[in-house]
């Protein structure tokens, strides 16, 4: 097997096409950034060594839980008896629901089944090392105790509890890291908040209700910035990550700089590439797709739904199989990325059973094979992931990437992990290896019984037992000099 020469072009999606073209980081697109910032960010000022140290836990983690949860889980995709197309958390926008009608949902929101302990334990059992929850999504409802704005779960509902506080306490208890998603630009219930129709996020703000009109800068100064300050200071050691979203033209470098000044007060904080205003942040965020070759030289995190929606939609049962989810995790790790996999609790705070099942099954695999994922480096090979078609083009007119699914590889000092999706008959063959292979065993075999390794002039052969240890992915460990 020839080692593939990397092509920079970011291309195609392998699995899980979302119903709508994804917004912020579309396939083949990059978010505009500039190097001259009115307020230098940590990325501008830190040394390479400081950057490595700050990103270390995140790179080691590889796997996290995304939680989309807010008032939109009440209509759950249906408004006034009609199903509303699109992702559940966009129902207010897709249905052009008036501000007063949407805000009235707070009066019905009482998620008494919400259990922070169980959700954190579910993430932990799945092998996830961090959680990112929507503290405030585009609908403008704060899922935390905000003194800055009364439209929040403590002040505006009969629940009167702060789920972010409860998750922070449980994460500390269970040694899981916690981050917050905050929709800094779009806010469909605050005067001046940005809003756009999903079809055209480059368009100027589009309001469907007069109550949304106002100055964007006023919205930032009166609501977003005070709330970001609350989130950065009210939850102890958390957040470790801030996940911004859907930057718009309203977010000028100057306004973004005001937020960066806040972020700079938390020098260990990691934040993504979706703040806007020309700031690139720490991580690329491909959404609902896996880039063919990752983002060489950049940290990246592929975020994905288990079905076709982030926010709970009662009738969206198009769940990916555990096999697909595991292959995604392994594929992403083999390209040096993180996987942020979403759950969407319902209006009572229950996690949909289909999502619980899949996370528990993924966790079983990780319990045996996690060593081949956590803290590993990308593959030393590359061609095993597939190749660019010489004839077919993708929707961006780029050569179409055609994935292959026999195996992937991740790397550690003195070890090469081969994650086999297709169990070869008798022998696994490697054309060439950039390292000298000294031995082999199956990761699932606790006794690490040596497998016969034969070096031939066409490469290396490893003799395999007849049956694969795992039906989805069996990990072969090659020890190397
Ligand atoms: C998109 C969607 C948003 C979702 C986010 C997750 O930006 O607009 O609803 O939260 O993706 O990545």
Describe this structure in words.
With 481 residues, the chain is of the alpha/beta class. Helices cover 22% and strands 19% of the residues. The chain has helices at residues 42-45, 48-61, 91-94, 99-103, 116-125, 163-174, 216-233, 253-263, 322-334, 353-369, and strands at 63-67, 78-79, 82-83, 130-136, 177-182, 241-243, 270-271, 283-284, 299-304, 338-343, 386-393, 399-403, 407-412, 415-420, 427-430, 437-442, 453-456, 459-463, 474-480. Helix 9 (322-334) links the parallel strand 9 and strand 10 (338-343). Helix 5 crosses helix 6 (163-174), helix 5 crosses helix 10 (353-369) and helix 7 packs parallel to helix 8. The radius of gyration is 23 Å and the shape is globular. The structure holds alpha-D-glucopyranose. Alpha-D-glucopyranose (GLC) is lined by residues 23-24, 68, 87, 89-90, 245-246, 287, 303, 310.
């Amino acid at each position: 097997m020839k080692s593939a020469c990397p092509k920079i072009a970011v291309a195609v999606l392998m699995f899980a096409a979302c119903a709508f073209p994804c917004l912020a980081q579309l396939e083949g697109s990059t978010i505009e950034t500039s190097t001259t910032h009115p307020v230098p960010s940590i990325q501008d000022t830190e040394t390479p060594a400081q950057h490595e140290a700050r990103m270390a836990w995140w790179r080691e983690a590889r796997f996290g839980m995304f939680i989309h949860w807010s008032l939109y889980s009440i209509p759950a995709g249906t408004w006034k008896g009609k199903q509303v197309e699109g992702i559940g958390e966009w129902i207010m926008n897709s249905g052009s629901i008036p501000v007063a009608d949407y805000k009235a949902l707070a009066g019905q929101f009482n998620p008494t089944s919400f259990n922070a302990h169980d959700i954190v334990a579910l993430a932990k059992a799945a092998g996830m090392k961090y959680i990112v929850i929507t503290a405030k999504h585009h609908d403008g409802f704060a899922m935390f105790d905000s003194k800055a704005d009364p439209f929040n779960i403590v002040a505006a509902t009969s629940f009167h509890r702060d789920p972010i506080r409860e998750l922070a306490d449980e994460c500390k208890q269970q040694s899981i890291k916690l981050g917050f998603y905050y929709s800094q630009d779009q806010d469909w219930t605050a005067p001046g908040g940005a809003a756009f129709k999903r079809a055209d996020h480059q368009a100027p703000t589009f309001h469907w209700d007069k109550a949304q009109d106002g100055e964007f800068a006023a919205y930032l100064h009166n609501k977003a910035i005070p709330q970001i300050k609350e989130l950065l200071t009210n939850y102890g050691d958390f957040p470790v990550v801030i996940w911004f979203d859907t930057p718009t033209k309203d977010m000028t470098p100057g306004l973004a700089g005001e937020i960066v000044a806040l972020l700079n007060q938390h020098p260990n904080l990691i934040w993504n590439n979706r703040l806007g205003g020309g700031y690139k942040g720490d991580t690329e965020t491909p959404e609902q797709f896996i880039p063919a070759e990752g983002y060489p030289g950049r940290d990246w995190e592929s975020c994905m739904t288990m079905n076709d929606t982030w926010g709970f939609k009662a009738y969206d049962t198009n769940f990916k199989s555990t096999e697909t989810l595991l292959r995604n995790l392994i594929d992403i790790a083999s390209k040096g990325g993180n996987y942020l996999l979403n759950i969407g609790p319902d209006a009572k705070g229950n996690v949909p059973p289909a999502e619980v099942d899949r996370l528990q099954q993924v966790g079983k695999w990780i319990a045996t094979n996690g060593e081949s994922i956590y803290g590993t480096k990308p593959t030393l090979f590359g061609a095993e992931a597939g190749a660019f078609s010489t004839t077919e083009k993708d929707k961006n007119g780029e050569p179409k990437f055609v994935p292959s699914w026999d195996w992937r590889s991740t790397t550690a000092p003195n070890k090469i992990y081969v994650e086999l999706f297709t169990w070869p008959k008798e022998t696994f063959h490697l054309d060439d290896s950039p390292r000298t292979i000294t031995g082999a065993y199956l990761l699932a075999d606790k006794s690490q019984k040596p497998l016969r390794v034969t070096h031939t002039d066409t490469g290396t052969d490893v003799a395999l037992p007849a049956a694969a240890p795992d039906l989805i992915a069996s990990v072969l460990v090659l020890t190397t000099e």
